[in-house]
């Protein structure tokens, strides 16, 4: 089961990523743009996710994904770390969120990370 240290290690391994505390929690940013947070007790992550996909994820896997009330108007989704299948799923989720926030110059410089996933 991935934990907060896995989130930190994987997020910071992505190109041009920094960690910054905001709203009393760790946040991860690519080129200054936030793509992940470790809210509250660090048992979940919040990541970027287009609203259409987010709603599908929550309906398909409510034990894993949910939408925090204060984030409902934004394109973000929460994922319970304990419900993830392992480090590979965590890496996929963080990398997809990174791609949504990364500027074109980084997407072009790191083609192996691919374009944002369109489901």
Describe the structure.
The chain is built from 4 helices and 6 strands. Helix 1 crosses helix 3. The longest helix is centred in the C-terminal third of the chain and has 15 residues. The mean pLDDT is 93.
What is the element string, with H for helices and E for strands?
HEEEEHEEHH
Residue runs with pLDDT of under 50 for 5 or more positions = none
Distance between the termini: 25 Å
Q: Give the number of helices.
A: 4
Q: From the alpha carbons, calculate the radius of gyration and give it in angstroms.
A: 13 Å
Helix coverage percent: 25-40%
Backbone shape: globular
- Mean pLDDT comes to 93
Briefly note the structural class of the backbone.
alpha+beta
* Major sheet: arrangement of strands: 1-2-3-4-6-5
Strand content bin: 15-25%
Major sheet: size, sense and barrel closure? Answer: 6 strands, antiparallel
Q: How many runs of DSSP E, i.e. beta strands? A: 6
